[in-house]
Amino acid sequence: MSATIPGASGAAGGSGHSGGAEAPGGAGAPGASGERTPAERNRRAGAAQPHGRTLAVVRALLRKELLVELRTLESVPGMALFAVTTFVVFHFALNRDSVDGDLAAGILWVTLLFAAILGVNRLFVADADQGGFDAFLLAPVDRSAMLFAKVLTLLAYLFVLELVAVPAFGLLLLGPSLGHALPALIGVLALGDLGIAAIGTLVAALAVQTRARDLLGPLLALPLLVPIVIGGARASSPLLALGHSSGPAVRWLLTLGLYDLVFGLIAFALFDFLLED
After folding, report:
1. Cross-strand partners of 99
2. Are 118 and 222 in contact (CB under 8 A)?
3. What share of the chain is helix, strand, coil (3-state, %, to 5)?
4. Is the separation of the CB atoms in 200 and 221 below 8 Å?
5. What are phi and psi of 99, to 5 degrees?
6. CA–CA dist 86, 165 (Å, integer)
7. Cβ neighbours of residue 229 closer than 8 Å, sequence gap 6 or more
8. From the CB of residue 108, how many other CB atoms can be counted at a distance below 10 Å?
9. How crowded is residue 196: how many other Cβ atoms within 10 Å of its Cβ?
């Protein structure tokens, strides 16, 4: 009988709350949650962060990306040099003093597209090779912060590229004066850049985890970027025609805007899974 007293007293002592039997279950629940990986726990914690914290993370990541590019000069100089070299090749290959209209718009957009692919291919390479992905996944921040930072980084690359490429295009190939078309052309280029940045970031995040990333990236990106080239060229063609009697076609601007929106939402929805896989 005396042997039952400690058990009874232990039960009485442990049931000060009506949960003595719940202690094992309570201990088991943290154990079950403890089976989540650190990345999953931090993703849940990051999803609960206020928007101000996410913006601060985006600013920090964007600053890091731009500083790395300023120090290494791995992407933007190659993109600009490729564009200028392509314009020189077209200048001699076409055997024409100048181009205008549809031909001029096609040359401009195709050149910008292939130059952008160079930046897309390098967008996540440093993160994959130097452990940046692992460090980011272990941080309790919203995963979409890296998506926004990379999109803004690629937009900055494209902005610098076009600062070099568009004047070079006007000097080497374009027949009509670029000055009168420039304000409207900037708007068309901005819409195209948004789509290139969203699709490029999504494709780069997918391809960087593979062994053939330098080949897979362009193969995935080019078919998705063809509608942007078509819409951008059709919208730019009236601006680059002799006489420049009309502005960009509104329906092509709307097409570019809708395409940007659709792939922006797709990138936002899929980026978390691509980052963790």
Report:
1. 174
2. no
3. 80, 0, 20
4. yes
5. -130, 165
6. 10
7. 109, 110, 113
8. 29
9. 30
Provide DSSP, 98-128.
-B-HHHHHHHHHHHHHHHHHHHHHTTTHHHH
Q: Is the pTM of this model over 0.90?
A: no
pLDDT recorded at residue 67: 93
Backbone angles phi, psi at 105, to 5 degrees: -65, -40
Q: How many CB atoms sit inside 10 A of residue 104's CB?
A: 24
Residues 6+ apart with CB under 8 A from 255: 227, 231
What is d(CA 64, CA 156) in angstroms, rounded to the nearest whole number?
Answer: 13
Mean pLDDT by 10 residues, the chain (277 residues): 41 40 42 48 49 84 92 92 95 86 93 94 82 74 87 96 94 83 91 95 87 85 94 92 74 94 93 75
Which stretch of DSSP H or E encloses residue 196? helix 182-207
Amino acid at 96: R
User: Quick check: 161 and 123 in contact, CB under 8 A?
Assistant: no
